[in-house]
Amino acid sequence: MTEWRPIGVIGGMGPAATADFLARLVVGVGAARDSDHPRVFIDSNPCVPDRNAARSGQGPSPGPALAAMARGLVAQGAEILVMPCNAAHGWADAVIAATPARFVSMVDAAVAAAVVAVAAARARQVGIIAVGATLDARLYHDRLATEGIAVIECDRRVVQPLVAAIKAGDTGPIVCAALAAEAARLAACGAGAVIAACTEVPLVLRAADVPVPFIDATAALVKATLAAARHNPGLGAV
Q1: In whole angstroms, how far apart are CA 107 and each of 70, 185, 197, 199, 204?
Q2: Residue 36 lies in domain
Q3: Both 152 and 207 in a single domain?
Q4: Which end of the chain is more exposed for a tag (fewer CB within 10 A), N or C?
C-alpha cells in the first residue's frame, strides 16, 4: 500500500498559484524516488466564476463550479481535497457538501500558523494581505477572533491591482516593493505578523521582505495537506 492517500487539487485560481502549490508539495514530500510521492489529481480551471465579483453581488457564485470540480476529482480517486485559493474558501461549504472526501482548509492551516507566530511575538494583532472577496467574507477575521487575535486589513486599493498584475505575469521588483511596503505599513500599525492570504502574494513576496513574521498560506496548506494525506503520520515529518 502506498504511504499516501490520493490528493485532489481544486485549482486554476489562478493557474500560477496552483503550479506554485504543486511545486511546493513535491518538495515537501522529501522523496528519494518517484514512487515516494503521493498521487495528485489536479483540476486547474481558470473559468471558475470570479470570486471578487461574486462576493460583491456582481457575478455568479463559484460554488457550483467548485463542487463539480470536487466531485470530478473524487470520481478519479482523490481522498483528500485542497483548494489553493483563499477567496474561494468563501464557498468551501459547497465543496465539503459535494463529496465525502476530507477537505483541508487553507484558512485553518494559515490561522494555526499565525497563532503560533503571534504568541512568539507576544502580539495580539495580525495583518492580512488579501483581495476584497477574502476580506469581505471575513475568512480570517472570525477564525482569528476565536483565538483573541484582531485583524488589521491591508489597503485593498493597493493590493487588488497588484494581485491583478501578478496574475498577468508581472512578478518583478516594482510589484514586490509595493507589497513589501504594504506589509511594512501593517507592521507599523501594530501587526505582530502578516498573513499572505492570497496565493498570488507569495509568488513575489518572501519572509525576508517583511519586518515581522510572515505567514505564507500556501506553505501552511502544503504542510497540512501532507499531514492529512499521509496514512501513518508517525512515519515521517512533513
Answers
A1: 18, 23, 8, 11, 20
A2: 7-105+220-235
A3: yes
A4: N
